[in-house]
Amino acid sequence: MHVFEGSLSFMAFPVVAFTRKDGQKLSMRRLAVLALILASLSTTTSLLNLQSWHSGGITILWPSNGFLAGALLCVRRRHWPAYLAVGFLVDLGINLSLATPSWVAVYLALCNMVEALLAGTLLYRTIAPNPDLTQRKQLTRFLLYGVVVAPAVASLMATLVFGRQGRHIMSHIHTFQWWFTADALGMAVMIPLYLSFARRKLFLGRSWWEIVGVFALLCGSAVAVFWQTQAPLLFALLLGLLMIGVRLGLAGSALGLLVVSIIGGFFTTAGRGPLALMQNVSLTTRELTLQAFIAFSMLMLYILEVLRAEGYRLQEGLRVSEARFRLLAVSSRDAILLVNLEAKVMYASPAVTEMLGWETEQTLGLSYREAFHPEDITVAESVFKDTREGRHPGMFQFRCRKKDGSYLWMEASLRLYRDSSANDATGFVVVMRDISLRKAAEDELQRAFRMVEALASVDGLTGIANRRRFDEVLQSEWRRAQRDRTPCSVLLMDLDHFKNYNDIYGHIPGDRCLRQMAEAATQVSRRPADLVARYGGEEFAVILPDTSCEGAIAIAEEVRSAVEQLQVPHSGNPHGIVTVSIGCATQVPPVDGDLSELLKAADSALYVAKSLGRNRVDAALPVLLP
């Protein structure tokens, strides 16, 4: 492969990856074509280096090992032995044809295969199955394993064969250096170029006219720079390499480095170019300087390409993210708003137009204080405040003004969003949905519930409150009276001799009589807080909140008189008409009092009224009075 103080030894080019990835067996014809291409490539590279070797120089760039390593990365590992075998045989044949000793030819061919195998193995584990050297992590591993470790191991192995000849230690160091630099640059140039070719990602999809044009310009510039010997214009080639890198990507950069290496190596070996200005130095020193320039250019181009690709991927990610967000926003039936910390709309999805009639542009800068129903603004302020302070209030309901001035019931959820760099709160994401149909259904359900509840609280015969409703209201009024320290009065009423009435006149007239009793009591108890209820069969009760004993007795007397004035005939009653007996009780409830005592007192008063001849009102004992 390389020259050692005038002696020639060669390494063959690696095999092109023609293997299909479907796992089929490689044909002999395919391997024969592979060997022919490999031999042609190896011979061409050797001829380009002959001038340097005969002039006592070194190999400037040896791309064959990098080419073979790139081929290994693009095929299944089961095919690697065939590739390595073809590469070994071709390399061995080239070395033997150049009169290299047989054992040296075998050993050097083995070193080259070890280098390709080691690079392929290390890189296969780290960048396969989707190699992309424009990713920072993959490029770092490629430079470490492919450009440093594998060439270093192969170069160390190659120097051992010359250690047997008793060379000085400095000679071994120089030999290692010459092998390593040429192989490392070959790896750095050929692996990216081959991977780009294998993945069909050559030159970023540019037209062939552009590709030919930029490379023609680079070739012309390289010839001009390396032909002249008047000015140190070597770094002027960086402009051309940068242009190719920007226009054609990583593959263009790799191919551009290869072109500059070939042209620069040819003219530098011939004693021309800016490196000829270096006086009193050997050809080897000039060629090492050229290698340093190529290595520097390679690092700069590859790093810039990684940064450019990362920027492109970031822009593409942002574009895809924005497109995905817009797709979701446009397709969603819910309205999505971006609101700043002042609660003013910065973005509104198209669903706003469908819901509220406002065009999205008309909502920009609008605040909830302008759009919400006045009764809902306080709730909204509380929700925005809680969200900003890190609490999650969940969903809240409100009425939002439509363009026609009417209001629509909506439900919304809030999330605080922050600046990705400073992590400072910058606004809110509001997702709103139309719940008018649900709200109407809930209202209808509430009406139905209230109707059922009312039916469950109404006596079916008389239409007044039943016993269940009486107990609920009495409990509520009792607690209120305890809290306010006000009197609470109860009347218990019983139609006199009503069983006899049913026996004499029948149940239908009896039911009519009960309804008349309920109507008379209702007409007397006219305050909204008063409640007349059917307490039992022929028993009725009246709750009189905030009513003194005297007031309760007066109302009871009015009820008794109203029933008497109905003049409903009742032959089973000594009075000849339907009458009613009423017991009255009043109490200011103590803090730990029991309302059952009030009912017992009213019932006792009713018993007294009935025992004293009926058709009268009696009040409870004075101990219950306030």
Automatic annotation (TrEMBL):
Membrane topology: Multi-pass membrane protein
Entry keywords, A to Z: Cell membrane, Membrane, Transmembrane, Transmembrane helix
CC annotations in GO: plasma membrane
Superkingdom as given in the UniProt entry: Bacteria
Any one of the GO BP annotations: regulation of DNA-templated transcription
Limits of the GGDEF domain: 486-622
InterPro entries: Diguanylate_Cyclase, GGDEF_dom, MASE1, Nucleotide_cyclase, PAC, PAS, PAS-assoc_C, PAS-like_dom_sf
Name of protein: diguanylate cyclase
Organism field: Alloacidobacterium dinghuense
